[in-house]
Amino acid sequence: MDASGGARAIPSRLEAVDAVLESFFRLAASRAGRIGDAYTGLWSALETSARGGKRLRPRLVLATYSGFGGSELGTAAHVGAAFELLHTALIVHDDVIDRDFTRRGSPNVSGRYRDVATTAGIPIPTAEHRGMSTAVIAGDLALAGAYRLLDRAGMASEQRERMAELLDEAVFASAAGELIDVDFSIAREIPSVEAVVEMERLKTAVYTFEAPLQAGAVLAGADDAYLPVLAEFGRDIGTAYQATDDLLGVFGDERETGKTTVGDLREGKRTVPIAYAATTGAWPGIRDFLGKADLTDGEAAEVRARLIACGAEVYTRNLASRMAGDAVRALDRLPAPVAEELAPLAGQALDRIR
């Protein structure tokens, strides 16, 4: 694989990742068919969850792998696919935790099985329990599959062990972040901005940015001295992305994001703008609406106005911009081919903020 193609070559390299995932699900479906149609159906639902998306994690694996001179596309595609399956596992489980039944505007695994149950005349509470239970099983299968794909990547034993350690750290950190997020949701006090940023880093940035970036470098045989720099870049760009997502969850255009702008407020999610607003005099006028399940569009508009008035929107936007800028500066400490691969990602982060 020629690294000189830079980021322009990534779409064609992602086809190799898709091929690995297709092969994985095809084999799983064949095995499941020997057990029964119901199990085959579950694998089909899981494969649907793994389709689409931006393939961000494989992109990062491939970017650093190529930038550091890696040339075995098949091996890199397996590692990228492993991180994509990990992502699938975590979002399936996260939807269960959040009691969400849709994703990207369509029924997720929970919603798909809930809808089948309700169509059969099963009462809503039982149908929802069936949907979420099935999603837990599906998420477990995807998580196990991520490790299985690493085993199939054709790496030497030492390299495979290091890759498994990176994947394990990603799972370990994400579970910690998810637990903190759950605890935040029931705590009476609003956490600090710093605590929210750290929760979001653990829950999302480690497995989405830091670990995939390092995995590609390790796979290519890069000097270990570059790993902390890649982790720093990943942490900063991850914070920028998540802070922007926090804004889009309240102020975004639903036609562009595919996500409602009242969902986070109704769930009472502890985000950066909410944590900042809690430190201002505007908080009493926001607090009573946060977590209100039947929040109206008019009430949501009032909350948005108060978040803007107290400076929470500007604060969050500035935080995202500052972290994206830090990420750009970190690129100066990486070899030029690697920086060239990663620069578009930093540019996209800045574009999302504007």
From TrEMBL:
<keyword id="KW-0479">Metal-binding</keyword>
<comment type="similarity">
    <text>Belongs to the FPP/GGPP synthase family.</text>
</comment>
<protein>
    <submittedName>
        <fullName>Geranylgeranyl pyrophosphate synthase</fullName>
    </submittedName>
</protein>
<dbReference type="InterPro" id="IPR008949">
    <property type="entry name" value="Isoprenoid_synthase_dom_sf"/>
</dbReference>
<keyword id="KW-0808">Transferase</keyword>
<dbReference type="Pfam" id="PF00348">
    <property type="entry name" value="polyprenyl_synt"/>
</dbReference>
<dbReference type="InterPro" id="IPR000092">
    <property type="entry name" value="Polyprenyl_synt"/>
</dbReference>
<keyword id="KW-0460">Magnesium</keyword>
<dbReference type="InterPro" id="IPR033749">
    <property type="entry name" value="Polyprenyl_synt_CS"/>
</dbReference>
